[in-house]
Amino acid sequence: AKEEGRGRWTLFDPQRNARSVSRYAVSVRMPVALDRGEFFIDYQPLCRLEDGSLSSVEALVRWRHPQLGVLGPDEFIGTAEETGLIMPLGRWVLEQACGQAADWVERFGDRAPHLNVNLAVRQLRNAGLVADIDRVLRSTGLDPKRLQLEITESAVMGPEDDSLRALNSLVDMGVSLAIDDFGTGWSNLAYLRDLPVASLKIAGSFVSDLKESRREQVLGWRIVGGLVSLAHTLGLTVTAEGVENADHAERLRSMGCDRAQGWYFGRPSRPEEIVKRIMESKSG
Ligand code: C2E
Ligand code: CA
Ligand code: CA
């Protein structure tokens, strides 16, 4: 499975040469980058479509590289997965984000948003994952019910028993799981039957690409509608990603989609921006 993963990455990595970021430079610098505090986290709102209120924020990691400027995760997460650095980096993101979320709860109580954190395939395969998360929740004091972990379809395709056990333990702890980029994985959907998933996140491309021909528009929206129905039939909540304008938001709301994430509801932003959003929101 490892071989396969590596092969896939080589084949499907269009980003690799897109910028002058050599993977070598990235992988050599990354270990010190963590120690030197060059990584930071932006938070993007997930809003309830019924009233636009702030439901959660997704932690999205960035790297302030001393020479290359700010790098997005697409430019280093792949390398981090390959080199294993995703382990300390993933742990740092989790700790940092849970600490932030707990701090907001302390300041704003129930008005504070929940927290979504991305989990890499490699983290999921790691035997220490459950203990790590348990430790982070205890040390930060964040209520596990406020944490949702996002995993991709490819991560749960034919999940090994160990991963399945780990995910079940996390759910027993009170943490919830979301399937990220739902609909792009080419997988059979059996995992929805086998996994304790609470939520689906419809891949941004389904919504934000809806600007082509009339026919594509119609079919695209029908697919989104079908995914929303599928989620609800299974008793799951559903979040649409890539929501870029009011038209997207209105259509999704009328379909009964629960939550939305995208530029229309807020770009990934610094914690101070999120605090402003919380303070603007009504309590209750
Ligand atoms: P993702 O989990 O699908 O995160 C959403 C991505 O969509 C983010 O890109 C976000 O900036 C972008 N986005 C949000 N709203 C819109 C919109 O309206 N239109 C468009 N076109 N794009 C939008 P970003 O921050 O570059 O992150 C890329 C990916 O990197 C993430 O995709 C996630 O898979 C991964 N990633 C980010 N942070 C972490 C992390 O801490 N750990 C792991 N393992 N992966 C991470
Ligand atoms: Ca995600
Ligand atoms: Ca996503």
From TrEMBL:
GO terms for biological process: regulation of DNA-templated transcription. This is EAL domain-containing protein. The chain holds residues 388 to 671 of 673 of the full protein. Residues 23-282 form the EAL domain. The lineage of its organism: Bacteria, Bacillati, Actinomycetota, Actinomycetes, Kitasatosporales. It comes from the Bacteria.
